[in-house]
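Lab notebook, entry 387. We have the chain sequence and a SMILES string for flavin-adenine dinucleotide, and the next step in the workflow is to get a structural model of the bound complex before anyone spends time on docking refinements. Request logged below.

Task: model protein plus flavin-adenine dinucleotide, output structure tokens.
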Amino acid sequence: MNYDIVIIGGGIIGSSIAYHLACDGRAGTIAVIERDITYSKAATPRGSGGIRQLFSLPENIEMARYGLDFYKKFDQTMSSKGDQISISFRRQGYLFVSDAGNDKVMEQNFHNQQKMGVKAQLLDKTNLEQLFPSIYNNDVKLAVYSPDDAWIDAYSALNGFKSKARELGVTYVSEEIKSANIQNKKIKSLTCIEGPTVKGDVFILAAGAWSGEVTKYFGINIPVEPMSRESYFFLCDKEIEPLPFIKTETDLAFRPEGNGFTGGMPNWSVKGGWNWELSPTRFEDTVWPSLAHRIPAMETIKLERSWRGHYARNNLDYNAIIGPWAADPHNLLIATGFSGHGIMHAPATGLAISELVLGGRYNTIDLTRFGTERIIAAKPYRESGIV
Ligand SMILES: Cc1cc2nc3c(=O)[nH]c(=O)nc-3n(C[C@H](O)[C@H](O)[C@H](O)COP(=O)(O)OP(=O)(O)OC[C@H]3O[C@@H](n4cnc5c(N)ncnc54)[C@H](O)[C@@H]3O)c2cc1C
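Result returned:
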């Protein structure tokens, strides 16, 4: 197997990169190496699909905005005869709630978001009560509501990227990479578990939470490791107004889903590593009381389903790592470490990597500060406020 461009990992990031490269028409032959066509452990199908512009860093805001526009038109762009794509794009907004004393940071971020054209609203208790009366607000200092934000079905988006990429000539190779052959400071080929060797000119790492393991084959280290997160789907029998995707400083993150709600409370301080075991107590002891505190009508919810998924957590600063590896091997590009933002940032990442590979520079969104130089120099570039 011999390709111009080889992408390692066919989740939403790898598939968006493949799609954007193939769209351009100048990329040559492209292969995506994906070991699990069912995506049984990948982050993408387990994610909540939220897309929000409520960030502090301009790159994250711009990437999310690109994602919003892109996903809004996604069904139309990706559907073809006999392959109807629907990602259930739902524009029902995001609400950030300051309930742990970081209101000054949230307010500052709101002003910066406004300067960047985000149509967010700063809400005091009264405004919050008018818009969302089911939210308990006695301990809320302020909130920021971004009505243009949305959520999607991420697994359908992954399938949309993938089927369109294939239609445009991309090859998906169902293999697992287990080592690399490096000569003269360049990756020459990858060896797969089932035996084949995949040669290429340019290699792009998009292996999600496995990226830290894969980079070892190239003799390099990146600070990306899996962060296990428990999620839930629950029903509520009380009447509640249509809610946006709510995130609080006290780590609640949930949104409406079908006839119920989905979400959880990510714990950023959890030790890195794979953990698929459901906690017998976390929902009842921690998550449910927090939900019932913030939305008193949720006192009587019924838990229907729990599952675990893993963020690719970049321990340096929790932000994505995007760009060419700024040392040897020098024909490697990296797109990983997205934590809880990879679905919303996948379209912009695909575009950015394709601009780099085909033209050597960013044309649309300058992501230089998300590059690998900061990783090598161990200089964090952090979000402030809710991550
Ligand atoms: C509970 C939860 C909620 C989330 N909520 C949101 C949200 O609301 N909004 C948002 O934007 N993001 C969210 N995320 C984050 C988002 O899901 C991820 O950032 C995104 O899916 C990452 O995509 P990926 O393609 O990098 O990784 P993945 O989807 O994990 O894909 C990586 C692929 O690489 C393959 N691979 C790995 N190693 C090898 C190898 N050696 N050989 C071949 N193939 C290999 C794997 O099989 C896998 O399919 C959430 C994540 C979780 C877990």
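Notes for the group: The domain at 2-79+153-223+316-376 is CATH 3.50.50.60 (FAD/NAD(P)-binding domain). Worth checking against the assay data. The chain has a mean pLDDT of 97.
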